């Protein structure tokens, strides 16, 4: 019985140190951020003046002076 207790104590002491490990920081996988760019649209600030300019040109071109 003494040999068994000695063997069990020795095995218990070596097993606990064999399974012990240091602190390992958790690894966090970082996913890249995807920024989606919107499709380019027409600029309304240029469309309205262009239409007005075409209207003025059409009015001047259609001016009939038969007098």
From TrEMBL:
<keyword id="KW-1133">Transmembrane helix</keyword>
<protein>
    <recommendedName>
        <fullName>Ferrochelatase</fullName>
    </recommendedName>
</protein>
<keyword id="KW-0732">Signal</keyword>
<feature type="transmembrane region" description="Helical">
    <location>
        <begin position="44"/>
        <end position="61"/>
    </location>
</feature>
<keyword id="KW-0472">Membrane</keyword>
<feature type="signal peptide">
    <location>
        <begin position="1"/>
        <end position="20"/>
    </location>
</feature>
<keyword id="KW-0812">Transmembrane</keyword>
């Amino acid at each position: 019985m003494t040999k068994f207790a000695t063997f069990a104590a020795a095995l218990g002491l070596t097993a606990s140190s064999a399974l012990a490990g240091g602190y390992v920081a958790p690894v966090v996988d970082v996913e890249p951020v995807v920024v989606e760019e919107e499709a380019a649209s027409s600029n309304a600030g240029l469309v309205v003046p262009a239409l007005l300019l075409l209207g003025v040109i059409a009015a001047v071109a259609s001016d009939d002076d038969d007098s």
